[in-house]
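thread: overnight batch results

M.L. [08:02]
morning all. the overnight job finished for the chain we discussed friday. pasting input first so we're all looking at the same thing
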Amino acid sequence: MKFDQKEDGSCEIIFSEKEVEVIKNYKKLFLTKEFLRHFSNTLMKISVEFNKRFDDKTKNVVTTSDTPIDGVAPKQND
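M.L. [08:03]
and the structure it wrote out:
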């Protein structure tokens, strides 16, 4: 998977064909401990980068354990 952040601060997560097949067949991804380590390292790095592009309103959004997080479909031309 690849994270592609846009200039407005939004981001697309782009999955490989293999990942799409796994999600399609199993409705989830299994993360080995090694994969999870790389994934968390990547998330930490991009978290810092993502925050640089957020506007002040978005930078001040607070998330709790019960905050619903809903994704949206990408635009067709992106």
